[in-house]
Design a protein that fits this description.
The complex is a heterodimer of chains A (329) and B (332). Chain A is of the alpha/beta class. Chain A is 32% helix and 24% strand. Chain A has twelve helices and twelve strands. In chain A, the strands form two sheets. Chain A has an eight-stranded mixed sheet with strand order 6-7-8-3-9-10-12-11, with helices on both faces. In chain A, strands 2-1-4-5 form a four-stranded antiparallel sheet. Chain B has one domain (4-52, 59-244): Rossmann fold. The chains are: A alpha/beta (329), B alpha/beta (332). The structure holds adenosine-5'-triphosphate (ATP) (2 copies), iron/sulfur cluster (2 copies) and magnesium ion (2 copies). One adenosine-5'-triphosphate binds at residues 16, 18, 23, 25, 43, 45-51, 63, 98, 279 of chain A.
Chain lengths: 329, 332
C-alpha cells in the first residue's frame, strides 16, 4: 500500500556542545511517514530517539544546533519562526513526552491542563471543553474521570500520569503524533487499550504516528514499519514483519536475541557485549564496530551508508547478516 | 521452604483526597483513594518475588510502605519478627539500611551535582559502613561489582547512559549491604539489551550475596524470567500468588488470565487476536462490593456480586481469591 507522504525528514542532524566539544546526538537521519502510517523507532538507550522527535517539533534548536529539513505537508517547518511553529505544535503535531512527571505542571489540576490545551487548539466552548476533557480521560482509562478532574498530578500513579499526558496530546485531534515511550509505565491491559486508541485514530483520522518504544512486542503489534537507531544514526529500516523475523543489521539482531523468550528462567540473558561509544569520541568507521561480532577492517575504516537491500528494506552495514541465509541467531 | 524475611499482614493504606468544591456544596466528607486493601504477603529469604497488576493497583504504594516512605492506615509489616512501624523500631536506622529501594527513574533519583564516587561515599558514610580510610577501596569494589569502569567515580550522573545510571543506583543500594532490595520498575526505561545486562547483574548478585528481591514490573516476560514466585494485585489486594512458572503457564484467577493474555506477542501475525478486558475500569475511590473484579469478569455469577472471595490455596495451583477457582483449575 502506498500512502501520501505527510512527513519527510531529510538529513536531520542535531549536535549539542559540552565543554567545548561537539556531541552529535542525531546524525544525518532521513525517513518519510505516510498518512495514517505508524513508524516504530527503536534502539539503544541514548541513541538519539528522543532528540530526533524533539528536533522534528523544533524543540532541540533551543539548546543545540539542528540542520536538515523537516517537510510537514510539503513545507519545511525546521526553518519556521518560533511563532509560526506554535500554530503547528499541539494542533497539527502533538508529542507525548518520555517523562510524564516533568511535562505535567505540578501546580495545576489535571482538568485545568487538559482544558488549557483545548482552549489553545480548538474552537470548543467552555462546557464542551470540560466534556471533551472527561471524555479523553475516559478514553485513556482513568477510572471515575469526572471525579478526578480536580486532582493534581502527584495524586496519580505513574501510569495514570502517563495516561493524562496521552489524553492531552490527543485532545486536539492532531494529524501527527510523536509518541516517546507512551506506554512504558502502563500495565499490559491498559497498554493494549491505549495502543488501540492510537491505532484507531491513525485509521479513522489518518493520523501519522512515530512511536518510540523499547518493547518489541509493542512494535510487533502496532507498527507498520520500523527504524532502528544506534549512536545517532538509523542503522536499519524495514516493514515490521521482516524486521523482526529476519533482522539484517548486527545490532538489530543483538536486540532480538536479548528478549527473554525461550530462555530458561533465572539464567543469564544475552546482551550485546560492550557499551555504546561516547558521542564525543565516536570511533572511525562504523560506530557499532567495537561491539560487532562481524566487524572487519573495512568496518573500522569507513562508515557504511544506509543501503537498500530489498524493496522497503535498508541497512547501514558492510556485512549484513541474514537468518534466512543461516547466520546464527 | 525458607523462613520469611518480611511478613506483611492485612496491610491497608488510604490516601485522603482534598474535598472538592462539589463535596463542600453537598456537605460530603472528603474522599479517599483506597490504594491497599488488606495485603498479606511473606517475602522469603533469598527469593525474587514478582509483583504485577494494573497501573494504579497499588504496587508502588506497597513498595513505599515497605521502606516506610508511607505509613499504612492499618495492618503490620514485620522484619525479623519486629513491627517496622512500632515506635522503637522507627528510631532504629538499621532497617533503613537493611531494606533498600531502587526507584524507576534513574534521572531524578541521583543528585545531578554529585559524582558517582561522591554518591557512593555518602551512602557508605551515612550508615557508617566503613571507617573513612577504607571508603575509597570499597567504592572501587562496588564499581567493580556493577561492572562500571573505575573512572566512573569522577563522573556526574548526566555523563552516563540510562543503563549505567541504573547500575549506579544499584551500586548505591548495595553499598550499605542490604538484605532486601525493592526494585520498582527498575529496568522499564531501558532497551532490551541493557535490561538484560541489569537483570543478569541482579541474578548474579542475588546468588552471591543471598539477596531477597521484590521485583515490580509491567514487562511480564521479564517478571517471568527473574521471579521465583509472582503475586498478582488487583485494586490493592492480592488475587493470585504462586510459583512463577506455573502461574505464567496456567493462570487461575480470571484477572490473571486477562492480564497474561494482553501481553503483546512478538509475532505481528497475532495482531488483533488478544482479547481485551471489557467493562468499566475500577476505581480505588469506589471499590465494587463482592468480588472487586466482578464488573469485568467473564465468569461472574450471583455470589460474585455479593460476597468477597478470600485468598485460599487451590489444588495444583497457588493461592487464588476467586469463588470459582476450583472449577477453573479443573476445567481451564
Ligand atoms: N540537552 C542535551 N545536551 C547534551 N546532550 C544531550 C541533551 N539531550 C540529549 N543529549 C544526549 O544525546 C544523546 C541522545 O539522547 P536521547 O535522549 O535522544 O536518547 P534516547 O534514544 O531517547 O534514549 P532513551 O532510550 O534512554 O530515552 C544522549 O547521549 C544524551 O545524553
Ligand atoms: N500521594 C498520593 N496521594 C493520593 N493518591 C495517591 C498517592 N500516591 C498514589 N495514589 C493513588 O493510589 C493508587 C495506587 O497508586 P500506586 O502508585 O501504588 O499504583 P501502581 O500500582 O504503582 O501503578 P503504576 O503501575 O501506574 O505505577 C492510585 O489510584 C493513585 O492515584
Ligand atoms: S558495518 Fe561492520 S561493524 Fe558495522 S555493523 Fe556492519 S559488520 Fe558490524
Ligand atoms: S470471584 Fe467471581 S467475579 Fe471474581 S474473579 Fe472469580 S469468577 Fe470472577
Ligand atoms: Mg528517550
Ligand atoms: Mg508504580
Amino acid at each position: 500500500m502506498t500512502r501520501d507522504t505527510i512527513l519527510e525528514v531529510r538529513n536531520l542532524s542535531t549536535t549539542f556542545a559540552r565543554a567545548g566539544r561537539a556531541l552529535p546526538a542525531v546524525r544525518d537521519v532521513s525517513f518519510t511517514l505516510g498518512r495514517g502510517e505508524v513508524l516504530g523507532l527503536v534502539g539503544e538507550s541514548g541513541s538519539g530517539k528522543s532528540v530526533t522527535l524533539r528536533s522534528i517539533l523544533g524543540l532541540s534548536r533551543h539548546y543545540g544546533t539542528v540542520t536538515g529539513e523537516v517537510r510537514w505537508k510539503g513545507r519545511d517547518i525546521a526553518s519556521l519562526s518560533e511563532r509560526a511553529l506554535r500554530s503547528v505544535r499541539g494542533r497539527e503535531i502533538a508529542m507525548i513526552f518520555q517523562e510524564p512527571m516533568s511535562s505535567l505542571n505540578p501546580l495545576l489540576t489535571v482538568g485545568m491542563q487538559l482544558t488549557e490545551v483545548l482552549k489553545a487548539h480548538t474552537d470548543l466552548g467552555r462546557s464542551e471543553r470540560r466534556r471533551r476533557a472527561i471524555e479523553m480521560l475516559d478514553h485513556v482509562g482513568i477510572p471515575s474521570a469526572a471525579a478526578r478532574l480536580d486532582d493534581y498530578p502527584h495524586q496519580f500513579s505513574g501510569g495514570m500520569r502517563q495516561r493524562v499526558m496521552i489524553a492531552i496530546a490527543l485532545a486536539a485531534r492532531p494529524q501527527l503524533l510523536l509518541a516517546d515511550e507512551p506506554t512504558t509505565a502502563l500495565d499490559v491491559t491498559i497498554q493494549a487499550q491505549i495502543l488501540d486508541l492510537i491505532l484507531g485514530l491513525a485509521r479513522e483520522y489518518e493520523m501519522g504516528v512515530i512511536l518510540v518504544t523499547h518493547d518489541l512486542g509493542v512494535v510487533a503489534q502496532t507498527c507498520d514499519r520500523v527504524a532502528v537507531m544506534y549512536a545517532g544514526r538509523i542503522v536499519e529500516e524495514a516493514p515490521v514483519a521482516p524486521l523482526l523475523s529476519d533482522p539484517r543489521h548486527p545490532y538489530t539482531m543483538g536486540l532480538m536475541r536479548s528478549v527473554p523468550e525461550g530462555v530458561a528462567p533465572r539464567t543469564a540473558l544475552y546482551s550485546v557485549p560492550g557499551t555504546p561509544p561516547a558521542l564525543d569520541a565516536l570511533p572511525q568507521g562504523c560506530a557499532f564496530a567495537p561491539r560487532c561480532p562481524s566487524a572487519s577492517a573495512q568496518c573500522t575504516a569507513t562508515d557504511p551508508a544506509l543501503n537498500r537491500l530489498a524493496p522497503g528494506r535498508s541497512a547501514a552495514c558492510h556485512h549484513p547478516v541474514s537468518l534466512a541465509k543461516g547466520d546464527a541467531a | 521452604m525458607s523462613a520469611p524475611v518480611l511478613e506483611i499482614r492485612d496491610l491497608h493504606l488510604a490516601f485522603p483526597l482534598g474535598r472538592s468544591f462539589a463535596d463542600l456544596i453537598a456537605r460530603r466528607p472528603g474522599r479517599a483513594v483506597r490504594a491497599l486493601n488488606g495485603i498479606d504477603l511473606d517475602l522469603r529469604r533469598g527469593e525474587t518475588l514478582g509483583i504485577v497488576g494494573e497501573s494504579g493497583c497499588g504496587k508502588s504504594t506497597l513498595a513505599r510502605a515497605v521502606v516506610r516512605l508511607y505509613r499504612p492506615t492499618a495492618g503490620t509489616v514485620s522484619f525479623g519478627g519486629e513491627d517496622i512501624f512500632a515506635a522503637h523500631t522507627r528510631r532504629d536506622r538499621t532497617y533503613n539500611r537493611r531494606v533498600q529501594m531502587m526507584f524507576q527513574d534513574p534521572y531524578s533519583s541521583l543528585n545531578p551535582r554529585m559524582t558517582c564516587g561522591q554518591i557512593l561515599t555518602e551512602a557508605l558514610s551515612v550508615h557508617r559502613m566503613r571507617p573513612a580510610a577504607e571508603i575509597p577501596a570499597r567504592v572501587a569494589e562496588l564499581l567493580d561489582l556493577v561492572r562500571l569502569p573505575q573512572d566512573a567515580a569522577e563522573k556526574l550522573p548526566h555523563e552516563f547512559s540510562g543503563g549505567q545510571r541504573q547500575r549506579i543506583a544499584i551500586a548505591r543500594a548495595l553499598a550499605v549491604e542490604p538484605e532486601v532490595l525493592i526494585a520498582d520498575e527498575l529496568v522499564s526505561a531501558l532497551d532490551v539489551s541493557v535490561q538484560a545486562q541489569v537483570v543478569n547483574l541482579l541474578l548474579e548478585l542475588q546468588e552471591r550475596l543471598g539477596l531477597t528481591i521484590l521485583f515490580v514490573a509491567h514487562d511480564l516476560r521479564l517478571v517471568r524470567h527473574v521471579s521465583n514466585r509472582v503475586a498478582v494485585i488487583y485494586l490493592g489486594r492480592i488475587v493470585e500468588i504462586g510459583d512463577s512458572e506455573s502461574l505464567f503457564s496456567a493462570p487461575t484467577h480470571p484477572y490473571s488470565q486477562a492480564l497474561l493474555s494482553a501481553a503483546p506477542s512478538l509475532d505481528p501475525a497475532d495482531r488483533g487476536r488478544g482479547a481485551r478486558l471489557q467493562g468499566e475500569l475500577p476505581s480505588p475511590l469506589n471499590i465494587p462490593p463482592g468480588c472487586p473484579f466482578h464488573l469485568r469478569c467473564p465468569r461472574a455469577t450471583d455470589i460474585c456480586r455479593t460476597a468477597r472471595p478470600d485468598l485460599r490455596p487451590i489444588a495444583g495451583r497457588g493461592e487464588v481469591a476467586c469463588h470459582h477457582a476450583d472449577e477453573i483449575a479443573l476445567n481451564g
